[in-house]
Specification:
With 343 residues, the protein is an alpha+beta fold. It has three domains: 3-82, Winged helix-like DNA-binding domain superfamily/Winged helix DNA-binding domain (Arc Repressor Mutant, subunit A, Orthogonal Bundle), CATH 1.10.10.10; 89-131 and 230-342, 2-Layer Sandwich (Beta-Lactamase); 137-223, Heat-inducible transcription repressor hrca homolog, domain 3 (Enolase-like, domain 1). It is 44% helix and 18% strand. It has helices at 8-24, 30-34, 43-55, 72-82, 89-92, 106-121, 174-188, 193-204, 208-217, 220-223, 249-260, 262-272, 321-342; strands at 59-60, 69-70, 124-128, 137-146, 149-156, 161-167, 232-235, 279-282, 294-303, 306-316. The protein has a five-stranded antiparallel sheet, with helices on both faces. A three-stranded antiparallel sheet has the order 4-5-6, with helices on one face. The longest helix is centred in the C-terminal third of the chain and has 22 residues, at 321-342. The chain starts with 7 loop residues before the first helix and ends with a helix. InterPro entries: GAF-like_dom_sf (IPR029016), HrcA (IPR002571), HrcA_C (IPR021153), WH-like_DNA-bd_sf (IPR036388), WH_DNA-bd_sf (IPR036390), WHTH_HrcA_DNA-bd (IPR005104), WHTH_transcript_rep_HrcA_IDD (IPR023120). Belongs to the HrcA family. Negative regulator of class I heat shock genes (grpE-dnaK-dnaJ and groELS operons). Prevents heat-shock induction of these operons. It comes from Catenovulum sediminis.
Length: 343
């Protein structure tokens, strides 16, 4: 019997078993399921159904106990077909969400969002800061500190401001600096930082003063620095110590090492940006062995209608998906709203 052909009684048994397992965390017996009023079957009948579900790869027996627990496939079927997500409006009025109903720079809003996710779910919260490769520049300003020293100020469309002191090989007059600033704003404003640099490079070939400032302000080192590097906000790592994830010290230590490797998490979250709405990875579906006992619930967020980042919760495969999914969804919506109102 293929999964799609499971009858209503088998699906009802699976639903009750997964819900019980998520709440209690230990193998579930046929007697326990048979006691549910809407099952209307004896313990022997339920036992046979559970054996069928096990053959289908939806349940497994962790040891010699008669009880069963869901496999990743069983959890996936529950999440995709059986689960009823808790009322979205239960969460929209939570006072904690007020943290995201403010005007603030993108990095600050992302930090607030990661802390909010961790607080509301009691799992680890992750938020990528909007990729500067995708965010347009609003304004460029150069403040003359000395004859050969300038403060470059880059205002991004998401509200973030980048500052950098640059040294020039030779002095520049204020009037000339104003002309170059106006020219650079014409080149950069409305374009991404990378697009602006590309256009500026072509333009600067015929202007020595412009070339001098552009090379000092936007050299390759700067391109790899705070202006463009991907950033990740993390909160609630301590929740990964939960025994629901692992009781083995070595596994916990390895999990913390994986979380500390921000590139690993960034790569995972970037892959989530290619999907609309909430996406769920359970256990081995993450593609990372260290996360085999974890689940990841993620969602992208937008600026000017474009996906510029994503956020996620990582916790036990036994998380309350019915609660976590709407919280992740609501947080991504509010972060999107806050970013678009903070620009």
């Amino acid at each position: 019997m293929a999964n799609k052909q499971l009858n209503d009684k088998a699906l009802k048994v699976l639903n009750h078993l997964v819900e019980y397992y998520l709440n209690e965390g230990h193998p579930v017996s046929s007697k326990c399921i048979a006691q549910q009023k809407d099952v209307s079957a004896s313990a022997a009948t339920v036992r046979n159904i559970m054996m069928t579900l096990e053959r289908e790869g939806l349940l497994k027996s962790p040891h010699t106990s008669a009880g069963r627990i869901p496999t990743v496939s069983g959890l996936r079927l529950f999440v995709d077909k059986l689960m009823t997500v808790k009322n979205f409006h239960q969460h929209i009025e939570l006072p904690q969400f007020e943290q995201l109903r403010v005007k603030a720079p993108a990095s600050e809003l992302c930090q607030k969002a990661s802390m909010l996710l961790a607080d509301l779910t009691q799992f680890a919260g992750f938020v990528t800061v909007p990729e500067k490769r995708k965010v347009t520049v609003d304004k460029l300003e150069f403040i003359q500190l000395t004859a050969q020293k300038l403060l470059a100020v880059i205002v991004m469309h998401d509200g973030d401001v980048q500052n950098r002191v640059i040294e020039l090989p030779q002095a520049i007059e204020q009037g000339q600096l104003q002309k170059i600033t106006s020219l650079m704003n014409m080149v950069f404003c409305g374009n991404s930082f990378i697009e602006g640099c590309r256009k500026l490079k072509a333009l600067a070939e015929s202007d020595k003063a412009l070339l001098c400032i552009s090379e000092a302000a936007f050299d390759e080192k700067t391109m790899r620095s705070d202006v463009l590097q991907d950033k990740l906000m993390i909160a609630g790592q301590n929740h990964l110590l939960s025994e629901n994830i692992s009781q083995e010290l070595n596994k916990i230590r390895a999990l913390f090492d994986a979380i500390s490797n921000k590139k690993l998490i960034l790569d995972m979250l970037k892959s989530c940006q290619r999907s609309d709405g909430v996406k769920i990875f359970i256990g081995e579906e993450t593609g990372i062995e260290l996360f085999s006992d974890c689940a990841l619930v993620s969602a992208p967020y937008h600026l000017d209608g474009k996906v510029v980042g994503s956020l996620a919760v990582i916790g036990s495969t036994r998380m309350d998906y019915r609660k976590v999914i709407p919280i992740v969804d609501m947080t991504s919506r509010l972060l999107t709203s806050a970013l678009n109102h903070s620009k």
